[in-house]
C-alpha cells in the first residue's frame, strides 16, 4: 500500500508537469482528485489495511491528499493568472481615443454677444425683463390705446386678458424708466413672441435687442450717429444703409433702418433691421419722467434678422431647428 501511494504521487507529479492549460489540468483533477479519482480510491482501500500498517498508511494517505490538492491549487492559480494576462493584452492600444465633442454657443447667442459688446463700448448697460408681461407694460404704457390699430399689427399670445407673452422688448423700457432716474443708457435683449404664420421670414418666437437713452438734450442726430456706429461695427464699415420714416406709437418721430442685402448671384434688396425714434412724451409721462426736462431715443432690432443678414441665411426656421450640421458652421 505504501508503495502504491508513492507511485500514485509520482504519476501525479508526472501528469501535472505535462499540463499546459486549464483544460489539461482539469483532466488531472478528474483522474486523481475527483470523487472516483485515484486518491479517493486509495482511501477506499484503507479499510483493508492491516492494523499494524494503519498508522503509517493513514499518514501517507493524508499527506498524498494534501500534497496533490495543494499542487493542483497552485497550478490552477498559475493558469488563471496567465489567462487573465492574455485577456488584458488583447487591449488594442493603437485604437484612436474617443473624442469628447465640445458644444458651442448658438448663432443667436453669438450675435447677441457681439451686439452687447458693441453697445457696451458705446456706453450702454444691459437689462433684462420678463417674457410674460402685463398688457399695461407691453401696450398701454407705450402709448397703444385699447382700440389702437397697432395692437392688431402684433398678433399677441394673450395668457389672460391682462397678461401676455411680450410681443417686443419695448416693455423693458417701461420697467427701466420706472426704476431708474435719467441719465439712462441701456440695451435690453430677450425673447419675444408673435402669433404669426410660420414661414421662412417669420417665426412665432424670436429675439430682439431694445435700446434706450434718456437724458437732457438727447437728439435724433445722436440716435442716428449711434445706430450708424453700431451698424458699421457689426456689418463692416462698407455697409450700405438708409433711414426711412416710419411709425410706432411709443416714438415720435419714428424711423426704420434698412441695410442693403446683396446675395451672391442674386438680386439685392433692402432689408429692414431695426425700428427707432424719439421717445414719445406720453411714454415719459407714463413713467413719471418730465418731458419738458428730458428727451430720449429708443430703438429695437431683431437678432435673427440681423444674424441672417450678416451670415447670408435665408430661412429663419433653421435657427430654431437645432440641426448640428447647420450650427457647427458658426
Ligand atoms: N418695438 C418695435 C418692434 O417690435 C421696435 C422699436 C423699438 C421701434 C424701439 C422703435 C423704438 O417693431
Please provide a written account of the structure.
- With 330 residues, the chain is α+β, with helices and mostly antiparallel strands.
- The chain has two domains: 2-87; 107-327, 2-Layer Sandwich (BirA Bifunctional Protein, domain 2).
- Helix content is 43%, strand content 20%.
- The chain has twelve helices and nine strands.
- It has helices spanning 2-18, 22-32, 38-45, 51-88, 107-121, 135-138, 150-153, 170-179, 220-235, 281-286, 303-311, 324-327; strands at residues 125-126, 132-134, 163-165, 184-193, 205-215, 241-248, 251-261, 269-279, 295-302.
- The chain has a seven-stranded mixed β-sheet, sandwiched between helices. It has a two-stranded antiparallel ribbon with strand order 2-3.
- The structure holds phenylalanine (PHE).
- Residues 168, 170, 210, 248, 251, 275-277, 298-300 line the site of phenylalanine.
